[in-house]
Amino acid sequence: MIVVLVIWQVVAAEFSPDGRLLVTGHHTNYVQLYAMPAGKVLERWGGREGGSEYPVRFLSFSPDGKRVAVAFWEGTVAVYPVPQAAALPTGPTG
After folding, report:
1. What angle do CA 24, 14, 43 make, to 5 degrees?
2. In what helix (H) or strand (E) does residue 86 lie, and over which residues does it extend?
3. How far apart are CA 59 and CA 37, in angstroms?
4. What is the DSSP letter of 85?
């Protein structure tokens, strides 16, 4: 399945280690977390009011998928927690 999200000014994007989440960093200084494959926005961090005054440069999930590290153009780094509900496995197991 191919999911197309219309997201303006994305400068960085990465899937979580399990592939269920997508995080995007934007030129307008904020980061969004999406549930895949639906593309539903789960969380929005940063922006001038809650983060850096500069655009996102790089971002990455932690290996366990519980945090997102974001580097901004002026050199600051922010670490955001992935909401617990997003980190829980879904569907049948085993």
Report:
1. 40
2. helix 84-87
3. 20
4. H
Rounded to the nearest 10 degrees, how much is the dihedral formed by the CA atoms of 12, 15, 21, 25?
-10
| Cα distance between residue 63 and residue 85, in whole Å | 17
Show Cβ contacts of residue 55 under 8 Å, excluding neighbours closer than 6 positions: 11, 25, 26, 27, 28, 29, 72, 73
Give the whole-angstrom CA distance, residue 60 versus residue 40: 19
Measured distance between the N- and C-terminal CA atoms of the chain, rounded to whole angstroms: 23
- From first to last of the 94 residues of the chain, give the pLDDT tens digit: 555 555 568 889 999 999 999 999 988 888 999 999 888 999 998 765 555 678 889 999 999 999 999 998 888 888 999 987 655 445 444 4
* DSSP β-ladder status, 40-46 and 30-35: antiparallel
Q: What is the pTM of this model?
A: 0.77
